[in-house]
UniProtKB/TrEMBL annotation:
The keyword Transcription applies. One of its GO terms (molecular function) is DNA-binding transcription factor activity. Keywords: DNA-binding, Repressor, Transcription, Transcription regulation. The keyword Methyltransferase does not apply. Residues 33-52 bind DNA. One of its GO terms (biological process) is negative regulation of DNA-templated transcription. Transmembrane segments: none annotated. It comes from the Bacteria. Coiled coil: none annotated. Gene3D superfamilies: Homeodomain-like, Tetracycline Repressor, domain 2. It comes from Streptomyces olivochromogenes. It holds the Pfam family TetR_N. This is TetR family transcriptional regulator. InterPro entries: DNA-bd_HTH_TetR-type_CS, Homeodomain-like_sf, HTH-type_TetR-like_transc_reg, HTH_TetR, KstR2_TetR_C, Tet_transcr_reg_TetR-rel_C_sf.
Amino acid sequence: MPRTTDGDGTPVPQRLLAAATRLFAEQGYDRTSVQEIVEAAGVTKGALYHYFGSKDDLLHEVYARVLRLQQERLDAFADADAPVEERLRGAAADVVVTTIDNLDDAAIFFRSMHHLSPEKDKQVRAERRRYHERFRALVEEGQKKGVFSTATPADLVVDYHFGSVHHLSTWYRPDGPLAPQEVADHLADLLLRALRP
């Protein structure tokens, strides 16, 4: 069985994901070979196939790990004991910060999603739908309580916000004028202003 860590204790799956993420971001998914990934991670092909069945599985995991984090954080905001506008604003800002913190992962995914197998594509779409539905439920809760305007359908409100989030990788630069939290606050404020009754 392959070793699970290297000399510094980094688990092999994490090393493989880190190497794949860097190479996919630099070269593109389709121009990165399995051999390049295992060489960059310092493991054998056998180790890669022990943890990931294919390069497609690596691509899926690059995105899935961010989505899992965002889902956990959204669930915590949604379940909190706070007014709905505070919970929605927190969730809206958080998805911006976590996307910026994982900008390579987001860029790789939106550039390379079409390379996923039909099964993985279906799985990712279901995971994203679950996230969007939980976010939309916060909008709908506020609309039902009269806290948010019902002039714009909740689905459109969610698409508006996530359209901005999904394009962060095309324009946000870590050395730019705005810190991640500043971008998050601006976008969350825009969302809340759009929902004012």
